[in-house]
Design a protein that fits this description.
By secondary structure, the protein is mainly beta. 13% of the residues lie in helices and 46% in strands. The protein has one domain (2-115): C-type lysozyme inhibitor (Lipocalin), CATH 2.40.128.200. This is MliC family protein.
Length: 117
C-alpha cells in the first residue's frame, strides 16, 4: 500500500516543518564525533539524488546532513509546501518521499528515500 510507505517520511517532514530555528553550519571537524542517536525522536534517512547519496537526521527545527565533504546542520526555513532546510549554502527541500538538494551552484533533483527508520 503506497500510503503506508510514504506516511513515515511525510510525517517526519511535516513534524519538522512545524517549527523554525537559527543554527550555524557545523563542519565535520567542529561536529566532534558527529554521532546523533537514531531514535524515533531523531529519525535517520538515506537519500539518493541522481547518483549523489547522503544521510539525514531530522530533529525539531533542523536537519543534520552527512554529505561527501562533511556534516552540515541546516535550520528549518519557511516553506509554502513541504519542508525546507537551508544554511545559505546548502539547501534541502522535501515533500513526502521526494526531495531536492542544492549545494552551492549544484542541484541534485529527484531525491528519493533509500532507507528510513
Amino acid at each position: 500500500m503506497i500510503v503506508s510507505r510514504i506516511a513515515p517520511a511525510g510525517l517526519a517532514l511535516t513534524l519538522a516543518a512545524c517549527a523554525g530555528g537559527d543554527t550555524a553550519p557545523v563542519s565535520s571537524a567542529a561536529a566532534g564525533s558527529g554521532a546523533v542517536p537514531d531514535t524515533p525522536a531523531n529519525p535517520k534517512y538515506t537519500y539518493e539524488c541522481e547518483g549523489y547519496t547522503f544521510t539525514a537526521f531530522y530533529r525539531p527545527e533542523e536537519m543534520t546532513l552527512w554529505l561527501r565533504d562533511g556534516q552540515r546542520v541546516l535550520p528549518q526555513v519557511r516553506s509554502a509546501s513541504g519542508a525546507r532546510y537551508s544554511d545559505g549554502e546548502v539547501e534541502f527541500f522535501g515533500k513526502g518521499d521526494k526531495g531536492m538538494l542544492s549545494i552551492g551552484d549544484s542541484q541534485y533533483r529527484d531525491c528519493v528515500v533509500l532507507t528510513r527508520p
